[in-house]
Specification:
about 325 residues, alpha+beta, Jelly Rolls, 2 domains, 17-stranded mixed sheet, about 15% helix, disordered N terminus
Length: about 325
C-alpha cells in the first residue's frame, strides 16, 4: 500500500497538471482573441467599399413614378418614416446673412443688374479660360452662358459665370436650365462661399458634363470637406430642352430634385452639410488639360451655350412664388 505522504504527493502533482492545462488553454484563448481583435481592428480601420455609394432617399409620393437612379449605385432600403416634430419644439434658425426670397426671370433684364459677372484675364486655378462678361447675354429664351474657342494659345477659351450679390442660407433653390452639349464642357448651378469671402468652403452643387448630358451630378461641401456625392441617370437629355432643377438645403438634410421629383438626399444630420450662407452661382466652363480625364477633351466646336431662364430662392419655412410655378405655367400653356 502507498503511504499517505505518497498519496498527498500524487494529488498535488495531479493538481499542478490540471493547473498547467488550464493555464495553457487560457494562453491559447488569449492568443486567438488577440488575432481576432487584430483582424477586427484592421477591418474597422480599412475604408469601407461602400463609402462612396450614395444613399438613395425615396421621397417620391406613392402615386408618382419611382425616382430614377444610377444603376451603378446601390440604393439604400426605403427610409424609415421620421417621427412627427414635437409640439412647441424649437424651430431651426436661419443662417446669418441670409437674404429674403427672390425670383429672377432671366431674359427680362440685363443680368448685371442683379448678378456679378465674373471677369479675369486668363486661365487660373483649374479653369481653362478667361471669365468673359461678354459671354453672358440676355435673349428672349433667357440668359445664355457661352464657352468659346479663342485664337490665343495662352488663353485658348473664354468662359462664363454669374453670381448673386446677396447671400442665401437654408431654403429651396430652383433654376430652369438647358445645358450646353459637347465634350469638355461643365455647366453648374450652385451655392458657394469660401476663403475669398473670409468664410469656410461651403457649397451645394448641381453639375452637368457636356460629354453626357443624360446624367446629373450632386455635390456638397462643408469647411472644405466633401459629402457623399452622387451621379444619376436622367429620363431625358438635358441639352434638348429646359428643365427644372432644385435643391432644398435644410439644417439636417439636403434633397435634390429634377422636374419636381426628388432624386437624392444626404444622410440625415450629415456632418458635411454646409452651415454658412453663400451666393447663388451659374457657370459654364472648360478646364485646364489636367481636368480632361473628368470632363473630356474639348470637342464642342467653336462655342457652346447653356441657357438659364429662371432662378429663385425660397427661405426655409416660407411659401413664395418660385421657378416651380413658372415651370408649371409654361408646361400648362
Amino acid at each position: 500500500m502507498q503511504s499517505s505522504e505518497e498519496n498527498i504527493e500524487k494529488k498535488w502533482l495531479g493538481h499542478f497538471s490540471d493547473i498547467h492545462a488550464i493555464v495553457g488553454l487560457c494562453l491559447v484563448a488569449v492568443f486567438l482573441f488577440g488575432i481576432i481583435g487584430l483582424v477586427s481592428s484592421k477591418k474597422t480601420d480599412r475604408p469601407s467599399l461602400m463609402a462612396d455609394v450614395p444613399v438613395y432617399y425615396p421621397a417620391t409620393p406613392p402615386e408618382a413614378e419611382p425616382a430614377p437612379h444610377d444603376d451603378t449605385k446601390t440604393p439604400a432600403p426605403d427610409a424609415v418614416p421620421e417621427p412627427a416634430p414635437e409640439q412647441n419644439a424649437p424651430q431651426p434658425k436661419q443662417l446669418a446673412n441670409s437674404s429674403p426670397a427672390f425670383i429672377s426671370l432671366l431674359g427680362d433684364a440685363p443680368l448685371e443688374d442683379t448678378y456679378y459677372l465674373a471677369k479675369s484675364n486668363g486661365p487660373r486655378d483649374f479653369y481653362g479660360g478667361r471669365w468673359a462678361p461678354e459671354n453672358i447675354e440676355t435673349t428672349a429664351d433667357g440668359t445664355t452662358f457661352t464657352v468659346k474657342k479663342e485664337d490665343n494659345p495662352d488663353v485658348p477659351f473664354s468662359i462664363a459665370e454669374a453670381s448673386t450679390y446677396k447671400r442665401y442660407g437654408y431654403g429651396r433653390y430652383e433654376a430652369i436650365m438647358q445645358i450646353g452639349k459637347g465634350s469638355g464642357l461643365v455647366s453648374a448651378f450652385f451655392t458657394y462661399t469660401g476663403p475669398y469671402f473670409g468664410d469656410p468652403h461651403d457649397e451645394v452643387d448641381i453639375e452637368f458634363l457636356g460629354k453626357d448630358t443624360t446624367k446629373i451630378h450632386f455635390n456638397y461641401w462643408r469647411n472644405g470637406k466633401r459629402g457623399k456625392f452622387a451621379t444619376f441617370d436622367l429620363p431625358f437629355d438635358a441639352s434638348e430642352g429646359p428643365h427644372l432643377y432644385a435643391f432644398e438645403w435644410l439644417p439636417d438634410r439636403i434633397t435634390w430634385y429634377v422636374d419636381g421629383v426628388p432624386f437624392y438626399a444626404s444622410d440625415l444630420n450629415d456632418p458635411s452639410i454646409p452651415k454658412t450662407a453663400g451666393k447663388m452661382h451659374f457657370s459654364h466652363w472648360t478646364g485646364i488639360p489636367q481636368m480632361r480625364d473628368w470632363h473630356g477633351k474639348p470637342g464642342f466646336g467653336d462655342e457652346a451655350v447653356t441657357t438659364v431662364s429662371c432662378a429663385s430662392f425660397t427661405p426655409m419655412g416660407e411659401d413664395k412664388r418660385s421657378c416651380s410655378d413658372v415651370y408649371k405655367e409654361k408646361k400648362n400653356s
